[in-house]
Every structure is written in structure tokens, then in C-alpha cells.
Structure to design on (445 residues):
């Protein structure tokens, strides 16, 4: 299972993120349902308490004969007698408000002179259905109300006269501010859930990037180990091949001097040295890539190093080298570099350009001073008007990558290795059908 996730980092990230999301969702939903259950429980308990208090209070008012005044229409006397009783009830049971209303929602008595006699209490109309049940003789409680920022709960109890008729309703109100605390926690859970989801998304993205970087690093290390093993093997094989190559070339030269007629040149005698030189160059590439030889960095004229490389190409490939143009206007460009290593880089680039143009195009070599990101640099360019690179540019510097039918695919990898060890960089630019440009930037300190 672990190997499956390692091969599929996206599935690993999705699995971890989904697990965390489920845990967070279950925690948030559990907390939310717990608060809602607590709210329902508290609402039921408050309703039970209020209806019990309202029933007992209504019975107290009936026993005092207050409703008899309302039956005779003497509202003022009823209010004068009811107000002190309501104030005492409010104090004893710690209620918010207590008052009496008639069928038209008009105040008959109240605590603390809250409502004048006959004033219509409009907000009670919101409980018209519950009030209607109370007029039928039931003691009922309303849902929690919010008025001017205050939360309260109301209970209604019928108050009867001596013959059992309902003359008025007793209304008691209790503070329900603690429900605001529950709502606050509910909102906090919702906001916390959204924040948790956002954090989870960010965590998933960062985790995906980290896993991707880890897997790329692991693949790079494995590749480096394979290349190191191949490099050691190649170095051993190349060293063993180089000695026989020298003998083959010497023997070919002897055979040429003995049997080739001066008036009838034979191309076969040139074929063996030509192939020996090609094999020798492949061996040199393998050795250069496998060995991490120490560079001898010295202040030398980079233009002279370029001219030496061009002279070697002219000597070994006199016909094709005629297509090479060197912009030699810049001289005394003193750059700290290993001349032999840079000659090897130039030879690889020039031979690639000559192979690309097949001796029919044009190869241009130029030198210039430039500034790259605030640093003085020397710019060395090798450009050709060949067919261009058929592969992606980021792959051309990879070891053993080649577009030729012959070759090791190490030439450009060796060039990149050498240039970077000089503290510089090499960049390839190519357009299909228009040629290729290799740019080398070296520090000009």
C-alpha cells in the first residue's frame, strides 16, 4: 500500500487531506449537534419552568379576587390591587417582566409601571397562535424572541373569575441571554470549520509540493548513483580502449606510407585515422564526464583560447572548418578559466554545429562582455544555421541524450559540467529550420 502511494503522490496527498477533512468535519458537526441539542434541552427546561411559574402565579391572582374587578369593568381597581402582587412575584422568582392583558392585547396591570393601563402591547401579536391557545385554558410558552437586542422567552396562563370564566391572561417574561452564548459558539464552530477547510487546502498544496520535491530529489539521487556507477565503468573501459586506438592509428599511418601511391590517393587509408579520431573523441567524452578532474583556473585571454580551439578544428577538419567565422574584434578578454577544459567545450560545440550544417551552412563564434543580474560576465556564443534541435531544449544537456545516429550523448553534458564548474552557465536556444545558438556565460571578475 505504501509503495502504491509513493508511486502516486497525488493519491497520498488526497488520502491524507481527506482523512484530516473527515476528522475535522466530524468534530465540527459533533460540536454543532451537541450545542443544538443543548439549546433544545435548555429551551424545554425554561419553557417548563415558565409555565409552572405562570400556572402558580395565575392561581395566586385568582385567589386574591382580582379578576372580579375586571368582570365588573373596574379596571383601575384591578390594576391597583394587581401591581403590588406582580412586583412581589417578579422579585421572588427572579423574572424579567410580569403583566396582565385582555383579549385585545391591552395592558391591565404590569410590574414597575412597565405598561400604562389600556396600552396595547403590539409585539405580543407575534405569539397570536399561542395566545389563542391560552384563551382556551392552556398554559403555554412561546419560542425565544429577540427584541431590541434582548432575548427573552414568554409564558401565558389564563386567569379565571369565581365562575370559571377567563377574564385575562397572565404574561411572564424571562431573560434568555444564555441562548446568545450558544449561538455564538455555533457561529464559532461554523467559522472554525471554514477556516479549517482553508487551512486544509493550503496544507494539501504544500504537502503535495513537498512530496513532489522529495520524489524528484529521490529520483535525482538514484539517477546520480546510476551515473556514478556507469561513469566508473566507462572510465575503466575507455582507458583500456585508448591504448589500442593509438596502436591502430600508428599502424594505419605506416600502411598508408607504404602502400598508398602518391599519384593515386586512396580514401580507404584516411578512413581508419578518421574513425580512430572519432572513437578517441568518444573516449575523451567518457573520461571527462566520469572523472572530476581539478580545474586549473588562471587569468588568460579567452580570445586566444577560442583561437586555439578553432586551429585544432581547422587542422583535423580542414574542409568543414572553412564554414566557421570568428568575431575576433574583442581581445585581451582576461577571464579566469582552464584553457584546456574550455577548448574541450568549444570543440564539442563546434563539431556539433559542423555536423548540423554538414559543411554546407555557416558557423559563427563570437565573444562579448555583458552584465547578467548585476554581475560582469563574458559571453561566448557558438551559432549555426542548421535545422535546429528536434528535442526539448531542457533535455539536450542530459547525459547519454543524443539526436545523432553516432555518438555517446555525453558531449553537451560534459560542456555543461565544465562551464558550471567555472561558475558560469550554458544556455541553448534553437528554432526549427533556423539553427541553434549555444551561449556560455563566464564570470568576468
Amino acid at each position: 500500500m505504501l509503495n502504491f502511494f509513493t508511486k502516486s503522490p497525488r493519491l497520498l496527498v488526497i488520502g491524507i487531506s481527506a482523512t484530516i477533512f473527515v476528522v475535522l468535519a466530524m468534530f465540527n458537526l459533533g460540536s454543532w449537534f451537541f450545542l443544538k441539542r443543548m439549546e433544545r434541552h435548555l429551551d424545554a427546561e425554561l419553557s417548563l419552568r415558565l409555565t409552572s411559574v405562570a400556572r402558580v402565579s395565575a392561581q395566586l391572582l385568582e385567589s386574591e379576587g382580582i379578576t372580579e374587578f375586571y368582570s365588573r369593568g373596574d379596571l383601575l381597581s384591578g390594576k391597583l390591587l394587581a401591581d403590588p402582587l406582580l412586583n412581589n412575584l417578579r422579585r421572588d422568582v427572579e423574572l424579567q417582566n410580569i403583566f396582565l392583558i385582555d383579549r385585545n392585547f391591552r395592558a391591565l396591570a404590569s410590574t414597575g409601571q412597565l405598561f400604562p393601563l389600556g396600552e396595547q402591547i403590539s409585539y405580543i401579536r407575534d405569539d397570536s397562535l399561542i395566545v389563542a391557545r391560552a384563551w382556551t385554558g392552556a398554559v403555554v410558552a412561546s419560542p425565544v424572541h429577540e427584541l431590541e437586542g434582548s432575548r427573552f422567552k414568554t409564558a401565558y396562563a389564563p386567569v379565571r373569575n369565581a365562575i370559571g370564566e377567563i377574564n385575562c391572561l397572565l404574561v411572564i417574561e424571562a431573560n434568555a441571554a444564555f441562548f446568545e452564548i450558544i449561538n455564538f459558539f455555533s457561529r464559532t464552530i461554523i467559522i472554525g470549520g471554514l477556516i479549517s477547510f482553508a487551512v486544509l487546502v493550503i496544507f494539501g498544496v504544500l504537502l503535495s509540493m513537498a512530496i513532489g520535491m522529495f520524489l524528484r530529489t529521490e529520483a535525482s539521487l538514484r539517477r546520480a548513483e546510476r551515473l556514478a556507477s556507469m561513469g566508473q565503468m566507462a572510465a575503466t573501459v575507455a582507458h583500456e580502449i585508448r591504448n589500442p586506438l593509438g596502436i591502430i592509428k600508428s599502424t594505419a599511418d605506416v600502411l598508408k606510407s607504404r602502400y598508398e601511391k602518391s599519384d593515386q590517393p586512396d580514401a580507404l587509408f584516411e578512413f581508419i585515422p578518421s574513425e580512430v579520431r572519432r572513437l578517441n573523441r568518444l573516449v575523451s567524452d567518457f573520461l571527462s564526464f566520469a572523472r572530476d578532474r581539478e580545474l586549473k583556473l588562471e587569468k588568460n585571454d579567452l580570445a586566444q583560447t577560442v583561437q586555439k580551439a578553432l586551429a585544432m578544428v581547422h587542422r583535423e577538419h580542414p574542409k568543414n572548418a572553412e564554414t566557421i567565422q570568428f568575431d575576433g574584434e574583442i581581445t585581451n578578454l582576461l577571464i579566469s578559466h582552464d584553457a584546456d577544459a574550455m577548448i574541450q567545450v568549444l570543440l564539442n560545440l563546434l563539431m556539433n554545429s559542423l555536423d548540423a550544417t554538414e559543411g554546407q551552412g555557416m558557423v559563427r563564434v563570437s565573444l562579448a562582455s555583458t552584465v547578467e543580474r548585476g554581475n560582469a560576465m563574458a559571453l561566448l556564443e557558438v551559432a549555426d544555421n542548421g535545422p535546429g534541435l528536434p528535442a526539448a531544449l531542457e533535455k539536450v544537456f542530459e547525459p547519454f541524450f543524443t539526436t545523432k545516429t553516432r555518438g555517446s550523448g555525453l558531449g553537451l553534458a560534459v560542456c555543461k559540467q565544465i562551464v558550471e564548474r567555472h561558475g558560469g552557465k550554458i544556455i541553448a536556444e534553437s528554432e526549427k529550420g533556423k539553427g541553434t545558438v549555444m551561449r556560455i556565460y563566464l564570470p568576468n571578475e
In short: Confidence is low (pLDDT under 50) at residues 1-6. The radius of gyration is 49 Å. The chain has three domains: 2-176, 209-291, 293-443. DSSP finds ten helices and 13 strands in the chain.
